[in-house]
Amino acid sequence: MNLKTAQSIQPYIDSPEKLKNLYRRVIFIASLSQIFGGAGLAAGITVGALLAQQILGTAAYAGMPIALFTLGSAGTAILVGRLSQRYGRRIGLTTGFMLGGFGGLGVVIAAIVNNLPLLVVAMLVYGAGTATNLQTRYAGTDLAAKNQRAKAVSIIMVSAAFGAFAGPNLVGVMGEFALSIGIPALSGPFLLSGTAFLVAGLVIFLWLRPDPLLIAKAIEAYREEHQQEDVPEDALQTYSKKGIAAGAAIMVLTQMIMIAIMTMTPIHMGHYGHDLGDIGLVIGIHIGAMYLPSLFTGILVDKFGANAMSVAAGSILAAAGALAALAPGESLISLILALALLGIGWNIGLISGTTKVVDSTVPANRAKIQGNVDVFIALSGASGGVLSGMVVAGWSYTVLSLGGGVLSLILIPIMLWANRSKSASKVA
After folding, report:
1. What does the buried/exposed string (b/e) look like for 163-181 if buried means 16 or more CB atoms within 10 Å of the residue's CB?
2. What is the pLDDT along the chain (428 residues), one digit of tens a residue?
């Protein structure tokens, strides 16, 4: 470690209070960016399937936008992870949010000119915002104590709820605004999405200093160099391939199930005569349920462990799938409840899986592994988005929802496998 780096981290080593203050500042900045990032993600999700249906003239491929931007997020997850590992969270997250913003504005242009190839490219780039929005949750864990990592993820995710809930409920307003300036109504929400992602990127770029991951890596290197033995228990780092695999599996399954059912719900509601206002309400509550329970989820995961809470996630997702399948299509209340449960199950699964991955990595490889894991999460979401339209077109929304509910129960044997043996090597 060079002298300049040592001098820059020495105050955080000498003063635990200074390190805690930095941790709290990182949580605040990451949370602020999530308010805008959540709005960017939610607004586009709400009308993506409807826009594809409008351009393609069929609902069979209405899941394509979700698949495209989740596929695009897969590539970006690698990029953001690698950039973060090498240059810090600030550079990685800023790059991802900016790409997502430009992608959202590209979707607006595609809708205006009714151009399918441009829509495909724009949705792929728009996926960068999705990947970055997810990876921002990791920034809070870089300086968190071991028994506070789930809570750190939770605080950042609950902040996204403000934007995530506002986004879908601004669909009608943005649609009217779009019409007032002479562009298609369904392009309005993407105008909001693109702008929101750009603002989120600016928040990270301007204020996420000093970089939490670079500080964490420097502190770890300092401790190794000076062979510190009196490291607090909650500062110990662990590396476990099995833990990484289990955490990734939790998030992959919950993402696939949630995306599949959520993507086809607006189409399903449209078939039963629900308007954009109803659809926006259901998706808004769903996305609120994805984020609002986060603070409580983090406390529960820190208290009971990621494995136990992952089983709870599987059970709630199964109940959501069953209710969505059996609820009358004209019943707005039933659909709201089903999609709220779907969001809660996703929330618990994501926070549990994230915590397991963080606990199973060290600062020297953490961001790179997190990026790689998020690739599989994105690909699972893309698969869910593509298959959902085909399943509904070939069978029904009921079959799709029941299938998702059954698939979620796989989380239980995964956790039994993860509990059977825990081979992790500790390093200070």
Report:
1. bbbbbbbbbbebbebbeee
2. 445 555 667 787 777 888 889 999 999 999 999 888 877 776 666 676 677 777 766 666 666 676 677 778 888 888 998 999 889 999 999 999 999 999 989 988 988 888 878 888 888 899 888 889 888 988 888 888 878 888 888 888 888 777 766 766 677 788 888 888 888 888 888 888 899 899 999 999 999 988 999 888 888 777 776 665 554 444 445 667 888 888 899 999 999 999 889 888 888 888 777 877 788 788 878 877 888 888 789 889 988 888 889 899 999 999 999 998 888 877 888 899 999 999 999 999 999 999 888 888 887 788 889 888 888 887 887 788 778 878 888 888 889 989 888 888 888 888 777 776 554 444 43
Q: Which domain does 163 fall in, by range?
A: 3-427
Q: How many domains does the chain have?
A: 1
CA 365 – CA 374 distance, rounded (Å): 14
**CATH no. for residue 219?**
1.20.1250.20
Which residue do the tokens 């826009």 mark?
A: 51
Written as one string, the DSSP assignment of 18-55 is HHHHHHHHHHHHHHHHHHHHHHHHHHHHHHHHHHHHHH
Nearest to residue 343, comparing CAs of 370, 326, 309, 319? 319
Task: Check: CB of residue 389 under 8 Å from CB of residue 400.
Answer: no
* Whole-number Cα distances in Å, 59 to 39, 56, 147, 228: 25, 8, 46, 61
